Amino acid sequence: MSLVMVIEDEEAISLLLSYNLEKEGFEVVTVSNGLNAVSEVERLMPSVILLDWMLPEISGVEICKLIRSKPDIKNIPIIMLTAKSQEEDKIKGLSSGADDYVTKPFSIPELMARVKTNMRRAPLFEEKEKILTFKDITLDLVERKVKRGENYLHLSPTEFRLLRMLIKEPGKVFSREVLLKSVWGENIYVESRTVDVHIRRLRKSLNKYGPDYIRTVRANGYAIDEHMQNNSDSDNEEITEE
Question: In whole angstroms, what is the distance from residue 208 CA to residue 155 CA?
Fold first, then answer.
């Protein structure tokens, strides 16, 4: 499932976009604070970005320029949303690096069509960025699908991001604090034990079709590697979901 990021500070518009994008089968994440936008793009790697021009504190044009300056995210398609309809404004938006420009108020069917078109036009990521593998586990970062062997797994967006982080660096032990910061974001307050809850769910999904490769390192965190172990002690701990 492709991820669309909506960077918009007006809640009504954000909700409208989210509803219609999800109806079209997209996974959606919304960001209301422009100052956090670039770090969220780097963390989540969306397939398309819908970016409002008039954001508080930093404009959509500046965010667009920042995204285009970073090698890992510079090729993600950006559709600028704005009430500015003058030709010079459109030129400014497109010159900042936007791939498309939609003027408010906009037609929802037209916007959905533009999202799909820009997604098809997007340059392919380098192979290492499109597909991640570990043993018989495969993550498709473009389609946001996970397979173990020939079996597709149904992971939540959080479980997908956890698995992506672990698989990117097999053998590396990630502390709960690092996982929280990278997967949930720096400005989100979540109890560290929440990581244990999601790791447990991730294990349950993965282990339906093969051995357990997620290693629990007591008092440290988690890693994924070939060293299979009995994780039952960790999994049997009482965990309260947040």
Answer: 13
Q: What is the largest CA-CA distance in the chain?
A: 64
Reduced to 3 states (helix: H, G, I; strand: E, B; else coil), residue 145 is strand
The per-residue pLDDT for range 191-238, each reduced to its tens digit, is 778 889 999 999 999 999 999 999 998 888 999 998 655 444 444 443
- Cis peptide bond upstream of 170, omega within 30: no
Give the sheet arrangement for strand 145-148, strand by strand: 131-134, 137-140, 145-148, 151-153
Place of tokens 């920042």: 66
The pairing of strands 137-140 and 131-134 is: antiparallel
For residue 139, report the phi and psi dihedrals to the nearest 5 degrees: -110, 125
Per-residue CA distances from 149 to 64, 104, 128, 231 (Å)? 39, 46, 19, 22
